[in-house]
From TrEMBL:
<keyword id="KW-1133">Transmembrane helix</keyword>
<feature type="transmembrane region" description="Helical">
    <location>
        <begin position="90"/>
        <end position="111"/>
    </location>
</feature>
<protein>
    <submittedName>
        <fullName>Uncharacterized protein</fullName>
    </submittedName>
</protein>
<feature type="transmembrane region" description="Helical">
    <location>
        <begin position="43"/>
        <end position="69"/>
    </location>
</feature>
<feature type="transmembrane region" description="Helical">
    <location>
        <begin position="131"/>
        <end position="153"/>
    </location>
</feature>
<feature type="transmembrane region" description="Helical">
    <location>
        <begin position="12"/>
        <end position="37"/>
    </location>
</feature>
<keyword id="KW-0472">Membrane</keyword>
<keyword id="KW-0812">Transmembrane</keyword>
Length: 164
């Protein structure tokens, strides 16, 4: 086992996971065929183009932005001399992640994509999507703030708090 770790650089389960992932990828490509990933009539509607754009947008644009934001969040709490036994970082990360994921899920409704089809199918407009997403985001941050406040109020303050 130690020889395998030294040669490969990680646990055998890591290699097994990679092989399984590539096998699944190969199965998906073989099942849907590469031709299904490309639309020759309108190239920008191809799955391959959207997948490549998502990789580029995430890895080259979004990841550096939220990595810097996370680094700032981590250094801001410790940089001002305020030492808290309840770190704030996850109370910001969790609602931010929830907000980003719900934004991605409801993006077509928020930007009113397919409005005529949506109206024909439901009889409703898409005007409420943005407001509801904003309310949901505000609620996630509010719940997180309440949980953080409760944790701050109930945390053991240390030896001086026990003596008082």
């Amino acid at each position: 086992m130690s020889v395998f770790r030294r040669v490969y650089g990680s646990h055998p389960l890591h290699l097994l996971t990679l092989v399984a992932g590539f096998a699944l990828f190969g199965y998906v490509i073989a099942t849907i065929t590469p031709a299904a990933l490309w639309n020759p009539n309108t190239w920008w509607q191809s799955i391959a183009v959207w997948f490549a754009a998502a990789i580029i947008a995430h890895d080259l644009v979004l990841f550096p932005i939220y990595a810097v934001a996370d680094r700032l969040l981590l250094t801001t709490g410790a940089g001002h001399g305020v030492v808290s036994r309840v770190p704030v970082v996850n109370h910001i990360r969790v609602p931010m992640l929830g907000s980003a994921l719900t934004f991605l899920v409801f993006l077509p409704g928020i930007i009113k994509q397919g409005a005529p089809t949506f109206r024909a199918a439901t009889g409703l407009t898409q005007d409420v999507f943005l407001g509801r997403w904003l309310l949901l985001t505000a609620a996630m941050f509010a719940v997180s703030a309440v949980v953080y406040a409760i944790r701050l109020a109930t945390v053991d303050r240390g030896p001086s708090a026990r003596r008082a």
